[in-house]
Design brief:
heterodimer, A: alpha/beta, 2 domains, two-stranded parallel sheet, B: mainly alpha, 70% helix, globular
Chain lengths: 208, 152
């Protein structure tokens, strides 16, 4: 017998294949044992495929397309919430359904809970105020600054909105410049326009 | 710590390959899931310096040995080996070799899989199985010798 014969008993290719199937069952088993701290799923949308991260407390994060960006986001979740992150259709199902309904214009507000553990400092206040802007309406950086008690901090508000880990659900796309200019968006201005159009917002000339 | 899904993706094929031979194809799925669930449980507490590819193989080695011990405790005395033949997905001409592998004591079986399937150095095998390097060599040597005798 040649000791290399042992390698034939489990080939690399077969192990690759069968481990994929065995690994696919892990998230459910982990959830049963209370070990799935962060479930990750994807949602197809008119503004590209979204990655959603859901914890037992609620939706913690939505990330736009871009592999590097997603790795960065998952790294941050691993550090700030838990590294027990696994893909799970079941664990993200309820949120994916609400987002689907939103993109089909059949939902104007989200009912499920959010997990705010990725939101820190001034962004907490800014995003709480932002969450109050109703569907189909817009506000301005200056107004949000006023509502958090720092009327001159429009720029800081802009930065806080840029750090929003749960875009769409915390509707930072509804905040625009005082002149009516859309100003900026973490996911790019085009996505901001699409979201505002979807919501039927009336904008002064949709100035870009 | 990297997200667990990245760690799983990077290590699943090697761990599965190890377990396929160390416990046999029929029990590989269960042991594989057991191994990664144990890892998931401990994952947030793993120290940064730990090499994760070694860490997971250490857990898998322990699971494989425990699996055989549990099998030996619970098995009814019967002529049939606790494992059945290779699954129908991939019928191999290696039934004789499988039969020989099944007769090995658990630690020798695990050691030769590390050595001859995963091509690990003896120092690694010692680390993965929590033994001295001498013991690792002895386990591989004895296991290999037995296989050779049976396959003659």
């Amino acid at each position: 017998m040649n000791t290399n014969d042992l390698k034939r008993l489990a080939s690399r290719a077969e192990s690759e294949e069968r481990s994929r199937t065995a690994a696919a069952a892990l998230p459910e088993l982990a959830a049963e044992d209370g070990l799935l701290d962060v479930a990750v799923g994807t949602v197809a949308s008119p503004i590209g495929e979204l990655m959603v991260a859901v914890t037992p407390r609620g939706l913690a994060c939505i990330a736009f397309e871009g592999e590097e960006h997603r790795d960065e986001v998952l790294g941050r979740i691993a550090r700030e919430i838990s590294p027990r992150i696994l893909p799970s259709a079941k664990g993200t199902d309820a949120w994916r359904r609400e987002l689907d309904e939103y993109f089909a214009a059949k939902r104007t507000r989200f009912d499920l809970r959010v997990d705010r553990r990725l939101i820190h400092g001034i962004a907490r206040d800014v995003l709480v105020q932002t969450s109050k802007i109703p569907y189909g309406e817009v506000s301005t950086y200056g107004k949000i600054a006023g509502r958090i008690g720092h009327p001159t901090a429009a720029r800081a508000v802009g930065r806080a909105l840029g750090s929003n880990p749960i875009p769409i659900v915390i509707p930072c796309h509804r905040v625009i410049g005082a002149s009516g200019a859309l100003t900026g968006y973490g996911g790019g201005i085009d996505r901001k326009v699409r979201l505002l159009e979807l919501e039927g917002s009336v904008l002064p000339g949709l100035a870009r | 710590m990297p997200p667990f899904q990245d760690f799983l993706e990077a290590n699943r094929a090697t761990v599965y390959r190890f377990l396929s031979v160390a416990v046999g194809p029929n029990d590989a799925d269960d042991c594989f899931q057991d191994t990664f669930l144990s890892a998931l449980r401990a994952y947030p507490r793993v120290t940064c310096g730990e090499r994760l590819d070694r860490w997971i193989l250490r857990i898998a080695s322990r699971k494989a040995i425990d699996h055989h011990r549990a099998g030996a405790r619970h098995a009814f005395p019967t002529a049939n080996p606790p494992e059945r033949a290779a699954p129908p997905i991939d019928p191999t001409p290696d039934d004789e070799l499988w039969a020989a592998v099944r007769t090995l004591p658990p630690r020798q079986r695990v050691a030769i899989v590390h050595r001859h399937v995963l091509d690990r150095a003896y120092a690694d095998i010692a680390d993965l199985m929590g033994t001295s390097e001498e013991t690792a060599r002895a386990n591989v040597y004895r296991g290999t010798k037995k296989l050779r005798e049976m396959m003659r």
